[in-house]
Amino acid sequence: MAKTKTAYVCTDCGADYTRWLGQCQECHAWNTISEFRQAKTPARQDPFSGFSGQTTPKVQTLDAIDLTDLPRFSSGFAEFDRVLGGGIVPGSAILIGGEPGAGKSTLLLQTMCTLAANMEALYVTGEESLQQVAMRAKRLGLATNKLKMLSETSVENICAIASTEKPKIMVIDSIQVMHISDIQSAPGSVSQVRETAAYLTRFAKQNHVAMLLVGHVTKDGSLAGPKVLEHCIDCSIMLEGSTDSRFRTLRGNKNRFGAVNELGVFAMTGTGLKEVSNPSAIFLSRSQEQTAGSIVMVLWEGTRPLLVEIQALVDHSALGNPRRVAVGAEQNRLSMLLAILHRHGGLQMNDQDVFVNVVGGIKVTETSIDLALLLALVSSFRDRALPQDLVVFGEVGLSGEIRPVPSGQERINEAAKHGFKRAIVPIANAPKHAIEGMEVIGVKNLSEALEVI
Ligand code: TYD
Ligand code: MG
Fold first, then answer.
1. What Rg do the C-alpha atoms of the chain give, in angstroms?
2. How far apart are CA 351 and CA 192, in angstroms?
3. Burial letters for 254-264: b for 16+ Cβ neighbours within 10 Å, e otherwise?
4. Mean pLDDT throughout 242-253?
5. CB under 6 Å to ligand 1: residues?
């Protein structure tokens, strides 16, 4: 057995230490540092290094590097490809994270059954039995005659088998149940997850296999999962969405081959995941009645606009310390906006409970939500409905100024396409040429925006 060396690593941010500490010096989290036994396997003794025909590395200039073996291939889902930056790159390690029950296994099984028609594909299941996977594939009506299946949890065995099977694409479901013999700790522990992922990634790189790793994440996004792995993999993708909602979003957190913050939208149906090619339509399915506290905004997700409805409820509080709840938006942003509203809009909500919600269960991290949140809050506070055909976006600064956001023109065009007639936008985002059927009102600061509505 190879020698092991002991290191310490933070399970939250992945920082390395030589000794145990109570608090991580990088992310300042307490009690997150745990012992980690690193397998000392010299690269030359890798069991699979012979297969790739390794030679001594040589130095060369960037333009001399052969790019011919890099064409991406499609996953069969346009939404999945979009998040990956245009398709799967051979030899890349891709982590698909998500809460248990999000649909990771379903998405990958569908993808692999489609891909197996054109290339060698291997699905390694460590969690479900082969019968369970086969039953699911049958129920989903997938083509099952080409996909190769393996039930195994030892990465050494998996790589040895893969060296003979020579797949072009592999799924490991999931990284939390995999183990490597050099390390004594239980599967799922930080050391096992880190080492098994590193081993599989190395195998993927040397043999040009696209490796899709499934990683479970808990509600708070931690666990010995995606965080400790992020440095060794090429793409990290999260499948999000509550299990009681039909919709699932696929979001890139890290991508060495494309842009991050792309969003892919899927719907979980009785027959597996279906892509949603016009997501604005589903997030906007609102009632025809005008209600106070509701407004539509245009988000910019990666390379496309997305219309979502923002709701606010402001109600007299019975508590000494009124509640501030933000679902799908950032809590700190809400507190900041309430302070801006007080200082520059003259609206006092100190004795009110404030709730805001982004409809459809999506998470908004973009600053263009500011203006929509403010107007929804004012609308609910005054109990006056905003017009149904109004759409807004814009960032609000601490002195009450409305700041421009990227891709203003595209956002307005998307709203016009969906039948909106009026838009309140930052003055710098107002288009130079009029858009047919759309009245665009550019505003400089908060008081101007409040005056307009
Ligand atoms: P699964 O892919 O097993 O989740 P994960 O691998 O991320 O843990 O998906 C499980 C959920 O998806 C399960 O709760 C039921 C639901 N589901 C459907 O609604 N329809 C389907 O056709 C399938 C296969 C699953
Ligand atoms: Mg699963």
1. 25
2. 51
3. ebebbeeebbb
4. 78
5. 98, 100-106, 136, 140, 243, 268, 270-272
Ligand approaching nearest to the C-alpha of 176: 2
For residue 97, which ligand has an atom nearest its CA?
A: 1
To the nearest whole percent, how much of the chain has pLDDT over 90?
A: 41
The residue extents of the domains of the chain are 1-42, 72-277, 282-452
- Residues 72-277, CATH architecture: 3-Layer(aba) Sandwich (3.40)
| Cα(76) to centroid(ligand 1), Å | 19
Letter for the amino acid at 4? T
What is the Cα–Cα distance from 175 to 233, expressed in whole angstroms? 12
Alpha-carbon span 53 to 296, nearest angstrom: 57
Contacts of 154 (CB under 8 A, 6+ apart): 178, 179, 180, 181
Give tens-digit pLDDT for 434-446.
888 889 999 999 9
Average pLDDT of span 331-356 = 92
Pairing label, strands 352-358, 304-316? antiparallel
Instruction: Report pLDDT for 225.
Output: 55
Choosing from 106, 218, 240, 242 the residue with most ligand 1 atoms within 8 A of its CB, the one to mutate for a pocket test is 106
Task: Indicate whether 48 pLDDT > 60.
Answer: no
Neighbours of ion ligand 2 (CB under 5 A): 105
Architecture of domain 282-452: 2-Layer Sandwich (3.30)
Return the higher-pLDDT residue of 224 and 98: 98
Residue 327's DSSP bridge partners are 357
